[in-house]
Amino acid sequence: MPYTAVVDNTGKYALAIDSSGRIKAGLEVGSAAVSATNPVPIKGGTIANTTKISPTGGSKTVTTAGTAEALVASSTLRTMLYVRAKSTNTGDVYLGDSAVDKTTSQQIVLDASQEITIEAPAGYCLDINEFYIDASVNGEGVDFLYV
């Protein structure tokens, strides 16, 4: 059962913490609750009540086995990362941080077509740029998708 705290004595603004620890805010303008069909009016427009999130995909191959390579070139904050080793790989691919390598720090090992999904906890995000791969064979790698 969530804990609810009324912010003002009118009862029109309330905060609640649900069983997962997420903060929920309730807002009423006049006598109508704010919703997708009744957004909050502000000068010059309305407050957006949804954010479109589109998936982005890519492919990464390791040029030289034994040398870790970042999945993406710059900081990319997202909530979910899906990685699948290429089906044509003949060796293993290793997923991890910048220290990942085929010999001493294998971290997550993926055979051909194996996959993994990594999700950030609610309220957090992943920086896709901090995920690296290495491979046991030159030119092998992964396909990935992040949201």
Q: For the record, what CATH class of the largest domain applies?
A: Mainly Beta
Strand order in space, largest sheet: 1-2-3-4
Order of helices and strands: EEEEEEEEEEEEEEEE
Level of helix content? Answer: under 10%
Mean pLDDT: 81
Q: What is the rounded distance between the termini?
A: 31 Å
CATH architecture of the largest domain: Sandwich
**How many strands appear in the DSSP assignment?**
16
Portion in strands: 35-45%
Q: What's the alpha carbon Rg, rounded to whole Å?
A: 22 Å
DSSP helix count?
0
- Poorly predicted ranges: 1-7
Q: Please summarize the sheet with the most strands.
A: 4 strands, antiparallel
How many domains make up the coordinates?
Answer: 2
What fold name stands as the CATH topology of the largest domain? Jelly Rolls
Write the layout of secondary structure elements.
Elements: E1 3-6, E2 13-17, E3 23-29, E4 32-33, E5 41-42, E6 45-46, E7 56-61, E8 69-70, E9 77-78, E10 80-85, E11 93-96, E12 108-110, E13 115-119, E14 126-127, E15 132-135, E16 141-146
Antiparallel strand pairs: 1-2, 2-3, 3-4, 5-6, 7-16, 8-15, 9-14, 10-13, 10-16, 11-12, 11-15
Write a structural description.
The chain has 147 residues and is mostly beta strands. It has 2 domains: 3-46, no CATH class; 56-146, Jelly Rolls (Sandwich), CATH 2.60.120. It has strands spanning 3-6, 13-17, 23-29, 32-33, 41-42, 45-46, 56-61, 69-70, 77-78, 80-85, 93-96, 108-110, 115-119, 126-127, 132-135, 141-146. The protein is elongated.
